[in-house]
Amino acid sequence: xxxxxxxxxxxxxxxxxxxxxxxxxxxxxxxxxxxxxxxxxxxxxxxxxxxxxxxxxxxxxxxxxxxxxxxxxxxxxxxxxxxxxxxxxxxxxxxxxxxxxxxxxxxxxxxxxxxxxxxxxxxxxxxxxxxxxxxxxxxxxxxxxxxxxxxxxxxxxxxxxxxxxxxxxxxxxxxxxxxxxxxxxxxxxxxxxxxxxxxxxxxxxxxxxxxxxxxxxxxxxxxxxxxxxxxxxxxxxxxxxxxxxxxxxxxxxxxxxxxxxxxxxxxxxxxxxxxxxxxxxxxxxxxxxxxxxxxxxxxxxxxxxxxxxxxxxxxxxxxxxxxxxxxxxxxxxxxxxxxxxxxxxxxxxxxxxxxxxxxxxxxxxxxxxxxxxxxxxxxxxxxxxxxxxxxxxxxxxxxxxxxxxxxxxxxx
Length: 412
Ligand SMILES: [Mg+2]
What we know:
This protein is α+β, with helices and mostly antiparallel strands. 40% of the residues lie in helices and 21% in strands.
């Protein structure tokens, strides 16, 4: 059987804590906890030494200190995590161009076409593990499976430093008694609904009548049954990491699933503004706009790009290009994550536009950028953003969240 894909899911163990321990020898081998945001009172992640003593993510600092008095508290540094994440993804791309970053410390790799070069997926996994350990002193758990859903499931099965393979012939045996909550994309709410239908294991979900599921969940019902059977055709989608790595990109995870087109447009505009203001700050403009969309099931996604005749960096131009891509697609599910990147970059010549209205637009943009630089992003923005501004703002994940920030900005 050779027609199946081979997908790796790589998940860095205790990522933030491992990065801190790797950066500071005095923290190595010790129980440490990383805190950030929200008044810095809650543990974001902790080292395995701390976990062994009972420290858990989400604990208040005082509680964690009571559990483990020798616990060292470190304030998180997103820049450090973003840097390590970007470097890790560069290593992954030595083994396949098909790399999709799922979060700052998780990526999928489609290595189907690399197997003949590297021998086997297992070989690739061992080499990657060794390189990441050597370069960053970080361990990763890797899952190998015929699709993204199962690869993610597999990487979760052994932590830390695990390597788990789900062979195509073994899928149904693996899933038979696996609880549905282990599947990526089945949240607490969905789990409760399925439990009420007496569905607890993936085996039960896979055997459930499709009509029973679609009656309850609509279009997602079919997808749920497939998930229970371990079927997943979603491709590994590159984003902001095209062969041309010089790009300015942003992505945003929405706190809930969104299917209202007006609301999606509003987020798209907000993203365009983030990408545009960044490009303008670096004085670059680009011709290629890439739109990335991840669906509510958390791993189905697509990416499409368009290349324009002109170089652009104004937010509304980026927005229009992104929207034109979106308009060519029928969305299959509500949207969970949006990303836009601008690539094919060149340095902008410092030249005033010829026409009065273009000059006005440029000055208005510059004024908006400088106010936002002084008072924080989105202090001033386009009118369309305003109705949902507060709500939208709280959904923004900072650029450091994903390894798709500004890449190598010294362009030709
Ligand atoms: Mg992780």
